[in-house]
Amino acid sequence: MYSTLYQEVDRFRLKEVYDADVMGGDFLIKFAMNKETGKGYFSLTRSGEPIKVQRTIFSEVFYVMAMSSLYTLTAEEKYKIEASEMMTRLEHWAGTGAAELGRPELSGAEATSSLAVPM
What we know:
The protein is 50% helix and 4% strand. The chain has 4 helices and 2 strands, in the order ααββαα. The chain has a two-stranded antiparallel ribbon. A hairpin with a 5-residue loop joins β1 (43-44) and β2 (50-52). α2 (15-31) crosses α3. The longest helix is centred in the C-terminal third of the chain and has 18 residues, at 77-94. Residues 114-119 have low confidence and may be disordered.
């Protein structure tokens, strides 16, 4: 979101907004993805501990959007690579890999009883 604001709205074209966008993107790269499964976490603690993973691919879609926007803003290859690699995983999950979209136990999550019926 900061990338879009910085690029499209004159009053947000500030160094602070640019810096916040880059720091947020780097935080996502460091903490938002499960390194073993490639799935994105739906929510994190402030220190980056995972709280929740969804069985959908929405977190990953937003991750691609964020990394793509950051690449457009900064021209740093690492953001382009992140977006491209996640897009490859998304294509897999949307096709033959849908069974891999389970919900594991996470270290930052409190014990709960889900009321949702798995689809």
